[in-house]
Amino acid sequence: MKHIYNSEAFRKSGHELIDILADHLTAAQEGKIPVLPWDTPDNQFTFWEKYDLEDGSATTLFKDIIERSIALNHPGYAGHQISPAAPVTALAALVAAFMNNEMGVYEMGAASTAIEKVVINFFAEAIGYDTQADGFMTSGGTLANLTGLLAARSVHAHTDVWQEGHAGQKLAVMVSAEAHYCVDRAARIMGFGEEGILKIETNDSFQMQTEQLDAEFERATEKGLQVIAIVGSACTTSTGSYDDLEAIADFAERRGIWFHVDGAHGGAAIFSEKYKPLTRGIHRADSVVIDCHKMLMTPAIMTALVFKKSKDAYKTFNQKAQYLWKEAAEEEWYNLAKRTFECTKEMMSIKFFCLMQLYGKQGFAEFVETLYDLGKTFAKLIKKRPQLELLTEPECNIVCFRVYNAELDTAENNRINSNIRQNIIESGEFYIVQTTLRNTVYLRTTLMNPFTTESDLEALLLMVNG
C-alpha cells in the first residue's frame, strides 16, 4: 500500500498535472483546440472500455481525459449553464479532495463547516436578509429546491407529514410553466402527483402571469388541494426570464403560503448593482436557491440554500443518529447532516470562500455583468440579420434565436435549426444547444465564458446562416 500513498510520486504527478492544465487553459482561451472534440456516445464508450494505460502513468490518463472532454474555457463554449471554473477554485477542489473531510458532523470538517456558515451569511446579506437568516451548501439545485419545498411542507402542511405521512391531505405547489423540471420532479418525489403541480402560464416574455395566481389558487382550493408554496424563477432555464418576484411575494403573503425562489442561474445577479433590480423582491422569499457552479465561477457541483428564518432550516429532517449527536431536535448549525440530504458532504464551501477572500463581491459582480452585457450585445447582432428571429429580448446571458423562413412550415423550420446546431457542435468551433418552446425549436446560447468576444459571436452567426 505504501506506493499508493507515496508523497514524492504524488508531488511529481501533481506538478505535471498543473502544467498540463495550465497549457490546456491557454490553448482553450486562444481557440487552438476544439471546444468539443465530437464523438458519438458509442465510440466514446468503446474507447474507454478498451483503454489500457500501458505506461502506468497517471499523467497520461489525465491528458487523455482532458483531450476527450469539452473545453469550457474556449470562447466558442456557449451551451449549458456550467461556468468555466476560476483556476484557483480547482486548487481548492484539490485541497478538498485530498483532505477528504466529510461535513456531516462538526468533528469531521471543523474548518470547512465554519467556513460554510461564513459563506451562507455572505449570500444572506446579498439577498437582503437580516441576521435571522441561515442555510447551507448542498449538491446542486435539484437537491436544494427539493429541500426548500420539504421545509415548506413541514411549515404549512396541516399535519406532520414527516411523522404521519400525508394522512389524506392533497398538497400542491404553484410554479411557472417554464420553471426548471427539477421543481416538477421535487413535487412528484414529495408525493404531490401531477394534480399537485399547478403550472402557471407565461406571457410573451416567458415570465409567470402573476395576474392568474388568485384564480388558480381558488380553483385548486375548490378541488380540495392545499397549496403550500409558490416558486418564482430567477431566472428560467430555457429563456433566462425573471419572474416578477415582488408580485409573487405579495400573493404568497396574501394567501399565507411559502415563497421559494429558484435562483439557480440568475440569483447571482444579487451581487451586481447593475443587474440586481432583476431580483427585486427576492429578500421577501422564505427560501432562495443559488448555484455557485453556474454564474459564480465555482466548480460543479455546489448550491447555496438560504432560509429567511434560521428555524426553518432545521424543519426538513428530524431523525435520530445516536452515534453522531445527542439531541436530534437541537438546532446545531455546526452538525450539517441534521439539515442536508447528504449524510456525507464534501468540503464544497472552501471553493467559494477562496473566491470571496481573493476577489470579493466585486469579482462576482464583474463576472455577472460581463456575461449579461454580452447577452445584450448578441441580441443586437441577431436583430441585424433579417433571416434570424430573436425569441425575446434577453434579461441575462441566455439568448434564444432561430433561422426562420416564412415560406416553410414549423416542422421544416424546426428540422433546419436542429441540423444547424448539430453541424456546429461537430465542427468543434462552437458549442451551443437547442430548446423547444411552444412547439418551436430555437438555438439556445448561454454565454458563460467572460472571454468570448463580439467577434466570436459574429463568427458563430456566420456558421448559423452565412
Task: Describe this structure in a few short sentences.
The protein is an alpha/beta fold and 466 residues long. The protein is built from 14 helices and eleven strands.
Features of this protein?
alpha/beta, 2 domains, seven-stranded mixed β-sheet, Aspartate Aminotransferase, domain 2, 41% helix, 11 strands
Number of DSSP E strands: 11
Lateral strand order in the biggest sheet: 1-7-6-5-4-2-3
Instruction: Indicate the percent of residues in helices.
Output: 40-55%
Uncertain segments are 319-329
Q: Helix tally?
A: 14
Radius of gyration: 23 Å
Largest sheet, described in full? Answer: 7 strands, mixed
Average predicted local confidence, pLDDT: 93
Derived structural class: alpha/beta
Q: Strand content of the residues, in percent?
A: 5-15%
Instruction: Please give the CATH class of the largest domain.
Output: Alpha Beta
Report the span from N to C terminus: 59 Å
CATH-scheme architecture of the largest domain: 3-Layer(aba) Sandwich
Shape: globular
Q: What is the CATH superfamily classification of the largest domain?
A: Type I PLP-dependent aspartate aminotransferase-like (Major domain)
- Can you tell me the number of structural domains? 2
Oligomeric category:
single chain
Order of helices and strands: HHHHHEHHEHEHEHEEHEHEEHEEH
Quote the CATH topology of the largest domain: Aspartate Aminotransferase, domain 2
